[in-house]
Design brief:
Number of helices: 4
CATH architecture: 3-Layer(aba) Sandwich
Number of strands: 0
CATH topology: SMI1/KNR4-like
Order of helices and strands: HHHH
Length: 109
């Protein structure tokens, strides 16, 4: 997908927000930097899709503010730093689970 097309999608979405939920426009972050994208790609060990890059370069998710609804069906649109944090937490849980699984099996048997 070309960047102008992604900009068109964002423009249409923001037009809808302006008409239907203008308070949410203030919750959208500025675009991600290439360093933000590189950090995520380095962490996961592979490039992210170009559509994803173009999407996040326009707006890097939604601000985290307690008590405000999210942009997408009341879910918060995560910025890249939160995606990175979530990936790290999931990876640690996976490693911990792999480590504990044999011990749990021994206890059950």
């Amino acid at each position: 997908m070309e960047a102008p097309l992604m900009e068109e999608y964002w423009t249409r979405f923001k037009t809808w927000l302006r008409a239907n939920a203008p308070h949410l426009l203030l919750r959208i972050n500025e675009g991600a930097t290439q360093d933000d994208i590189n950090t995520l790609q380095s962490l996961i060990g592979r490039p992210v899709p170009q559509d994803f890059v173009e999407f996040y370069k326009i707006h890097n998710g939604q601000k985290e503010e307690y008590g405000f609804e999210g942009l997408l069906y009341s879910d918060r649109l995560l910025p890249l730093h939160d995606i990175t944090r979530t990936w790290k937490a999931g990876t640690m849980l996976s490693i911990l689970g792999a480590y504990l699984r044999p011990a749990l099996r021994r206890r059950i048997v």
